[in-house]
């Protein structure tokens, strides 16, 4: 029972679009000394590429041991025996993501999957229901 839930390619494109102001900021290096300017440009491009890659490979992995959430910045693991419930939490006005509620009362954000908020059932709601069903089977 191994299952991987990935962020759609559209999220990677959105991450790149959000980084465009940072790319435009490369022009701010024009006052840097000529010798260091290529290094600054390269560092900014490498940072942009790394952030885009980390966003593109964000995912949830479901295994017999539990749920592993690979987000943009962190990886979290929730064992099945600690999982009580999975709820959906809004993140701002536009996004939502699942949160694992553990038996000791802690809440662990599963930020490996985001989706657009919706008044009707959304993609994240379906993922949360699937995780609850899998936890009942484990």
Description:
It is a single chain. By secondary structure, the chain is α+β, with helices and mostly antiparallel strands. The protein contains three helices and eight strands. The protein has helices spanning 9-24, 37-56, 123-137, and strands at 3-6, 59-62, 66-70, 75-79, 83-91, 95-102, 107-109, 115-116. A four-stranded antiparallel sheet has the order 1-2-3-4, with helices on one face. Helix 1 packs antiparallel against helix 2. It is elongated. It starts with a strand and ends with a helix. The model has no long low-confidence stretch (mean pLDDT 77).
Task: Summarize the model shown.
The protein has 138 residues and is α+β, with helices and mostly antiparallel strands.
Q: What is the topological layout?
A:
Layout: E1 3-6, H1 9-24, H2 37-56, E2 59-62, E3 66-70, E4 75-79, E5 83-91, E6 95-102, E7 107-109, E8 115-116, H3 123-137
Antiparallel strand pairs: 1-2, 2-3, 3-4, 5-6, 6-7, 6-8
Helix pairs in contact: 1-2
List keywords for this structure.
single chain, 138 residues, alpha+beta, four-stranded antiparallel beta sheet, elongated
């Amino acid at each position: 029972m191994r299952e991987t839930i990935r962020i759609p390619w559209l999220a990677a494109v959105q991450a790149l679009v959000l980084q465009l102001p940072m790319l435009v900021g490369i022009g701010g290096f024009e006052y840097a000394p000529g010798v260091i300017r290529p290094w600054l440009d390269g560092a900014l491009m490498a940072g942009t590429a790394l952030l885009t890659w980390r966003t593109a490979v964000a995912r949830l992995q479901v295994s017999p041991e539990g749920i592993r959430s690979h987000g943009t910045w962190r990886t979290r693991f929730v064992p099945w025996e600690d999982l009580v419930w999975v709820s959906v939490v809004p993140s701002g006005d536009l996004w939502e993501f699942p949160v694992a509620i553990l038996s000791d009362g802690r809440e662990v954000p599963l930020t490996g999957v985001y989706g657009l908020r919706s008044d009707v059932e959304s993609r994240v709601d379906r993922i949360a229901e699937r995780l609850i069903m899998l936890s009942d089977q484990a």
